[in-house]
Structures are given as structure tokens and as C-alpha cells.
Amino acid sequence: MDFEELKARFFDALDREKGSVSGAARAVGVNRSTAFGWVRKAGLRGRGKTGTTGHPGRAEYDRLRVAGVRRRDAAAQVGVNERTARDWDRGIRKIGDARLHADGRRVDYKTGVTIIVPVSSEPSVAAVEATLHPRYLTVTDRELIADLRRQGESFRAIGRALGRPASTVKREIDTRSVNGVYRPHHAQRAWATSRPRPKESKLALDGPLRDHVAGKLREQWSPEQICQALVIEFPDDEDMRVSPETIYQAIYLQARGGLRREVAAALRTGRTRRTPRRRPDQRTSRFVEEMVMISERPAEVTDRAVPGHWEGDLIVGTRNESAIVTLVERSTRYVLLGHLPGGHTAEEVRDVLVPLIQTLPAHLRGSLTWDQGCEMAAHKQFSIATGVPVYFRDPHSPWQRGSNENTNGLLRQYFPKGTDLSVHSAEDLEHVAQKLNRRPRKTLDWSTPAERLRNLLTTT
């Protein structure tokens, strides 16, 4: 069988396989790369296994979106993740380990490389049918403009029908008409094409601005520092202006400024691509068991008026292989230490905390406040075993456990950072705890934690 005959058989199989290039290639015994090359040269586009939309629910999703259904609800109805739905709305296609954006950005999520590739001037269906802010004209608005214009209505009359200024209607007709004829669907496609407004980056061309930015990056200045310094150093030169985002894009996006080679020295993080962020309502819970946050902690705990409420944390040794549980009572500053010589998994921490708390009388088991470390994933099991509720402080708010943070600093006098904590026995920890509890404290009017706790035990 010659080459042309094989190629002809492949295209016949392509029709039988409903456009699946891979399926047709398997049917005639052709290498997939060769098959995709034939399809590209023929100006065709493979449909994949499930049709032109790729996902069996895509057509239904598009119908729901056109009908005005919210993205989140439409995604739930067709059974896809909201992020996949957002990609569909934005015209983003997944290609292997990369995403091809409608504006030509191809982001490889394994290597972190972003490149700009040529894209068709014709907008995608998603871009044409995208539901945006009400200030934008929709295809329905444009159809109404065309209908009323054919009836000879004035700009003002059309504007009143749309609930928009007459100037908006005039500008739309003047800008989108072709040979004096306004065609609504052509106007919608032209608008979708013009929306991205692609233009060359300020830092893509050699010149004083690019040289100045590159020089400051080499001095480890942040993009925001560079932006603000330009205004001060060149107050009358409007060409010497650039936003922090433009500098970030010149670093992160290949071919958008050529500053990628500066990234290692430019940014304090040294990252080669942006870190994805999520809104608080989209983040997955840290633990399987729902956390009770510190905002729900009783007021009596906050003002330290009632004893028996504890703050807890870990101090860890070299290579995070060993740890010590530290507990501090909020009103007396009394310290309890637990031994973790072999590790600090959630189960190991739970098994140390439970007997440590159970050594206390019932009236001194009020609550425990912890940070959001993964070592406290078994907090529900701890609460069931001891009857002590656990509250979690907010992220990046160490002052909400101030007594424990201060005590951990004092403990470093006995257990320096970077040392192996497994060499200390439980008796060693008890000895250190007693030393701290016998120290007078200024916050206790120079009483000791041991004296304050003894008073509590003898008066109740």
C-alpha cells in the first residue's frame, strides 16, 4: 500500500470515527503524530472521542450559560468542576500538561513555562457567547438594534428600548456597520475579537525603561518599589512609567519582555511562575473534622478571668524528626511538656496530649487553643477522649496564642533550634517544666506559675 492510499484510508476512517484522530490512526495503523500532521495540513481539527466539544456535557453547559444560568450552577448540573467551567467560558483548551488561552498564552504546568503562540483572528464560541457585565451589549441587544434600525427608529428611540444612552447606540452602529449595514452577529464577533486588545508590552522593546527596570531587578528591588521609584526619579517623563503587573508579566511570561533570565535574582521567592490562589470559600478544609475557630471561643477565655484554658503548640528538632508538645495555662502561665522522640504525626500528638491533659483536675480542663498545624488533625478524637474542646487560631495570627509563643521562646534556652530533641527523656522535660514554673513572672506580679496553680488547687 502506497503513502497516498494509506492517507486516503486514514481520512475515510476519520469520518467513521466521528473525527477522532487517535481512533482513525489506530484503525489504519498509522503513527498518531503522523495522523495529527495530516489533519493540520488539511486544515481540519480533531474532534476527540466525544465530539467537537470534548466533554459530553459541554453542549448542555453552553445551553445553560446562554440561558443565563450561573457558572457554578451550570457546572454542577453537567457534573464538572467549576474551574473546568471557567476554562470553557474563557475559551481555554487543555493540551497535554498545558493550557492554551484564547489570547495565545500557552502555560505548561509541569515546567512553569508560559509562551505566546499565534492564534486565529476568529473568536471562539465561548468568547462570543460569554456572559459579562451588564454594561456590555449582548447579542440580544445587538439583534434589537438591527431590528429597530431597519424599522427606521432613531438612536434615541433605540436607546430607550435598550435602557441605554443614544450615544451608545450611535457608536455601536458607526463602529460595527459594514458598508452601511449593521449586522448584529457580525458585530458580536467583531466585539469579541476586539475585547482582548492585545498590544506589545512596554518592556518588550530595548530602551531606557527596560534597562532601568532590569537594573533595579538585579539590585533585588521588588516590582512595586521600581514602579514607585520611577515616578520620583522621572517626574516629567511619562514614557518612564510601568505598572508592577507589567514587570511581573515580563518576568513570568516568555516573550512578554524578555526579563525571564532575571527571575532568580529579581524576586525574593525565586519562583518561575505565579502561585495559584483561591478565594476563602473555594479552599478545601485543612482537616477532615471541621475546625472550631478562635472567634467562637467563649469570652471568659479571652480575658483570662477563668483558669483552666490552655494554649498548645510544638517545638521541633533538627530535620523535623523529633518534637516536644508545649502546653501553657492562660491565667497562671503554668507549663506542661510532652515527649515526642520519634515523630509528630496527628496520632502521635493525640496519644501524648490525652494523658497529659488527664493529669489535670476536671475544673482545669476548660479548653485548648492551637494553631492550624497538621499535627492537630485528630482534634476531634482528642476532645472526645478528654472532654476538652479545641479552638484554632486564625492563619498568620500568632499573637492569638501569645502566652504559648512566649513560652516556646523561653524553652529554646534549654532546647536550642537545630538540635535533636529525641535525646531528651521525659524526665528531662519534666525537670525543665519545673524550672519554668518556679520562675517569678512580671505578668503575675512576680509570683511563679507553680504558686498560682497551687493557690487554684487549694481554694477550689
TrEMBL record:
PROSITE patterns (UniProt xref): INTEGRASE, TRANSPOSASE_IS30
GO molecular function, one term: DNA binding
Pfam families reported for this sequence: HTH_38, rve
Domain of life: Bacteria
GO cellular component, one term: cytosol
InterPro entries per record: Integrase_cat-core, IS30-like_HTH, RNaseH-like_sf, RNaseH_sf, Transposase-Integrase, Transposase_IS30-like, Transposase_IS30_CS
NCBIfam families from the UniProt entry: transpos_IS30
Organism: Amycolatopsis coloradensis
Keyword terms of this UniProt record: DNA recombination, DNA-binding, Transposition
Similarity comment text for this entry: Belongs to the transposase IS30 family.
Known function: Required for the transposition of the insertion element.
GO biological process entries: DNA integration; DNA transposition
Domain Integrase catalytic: 294-457
Protein name: IS30 family transposase
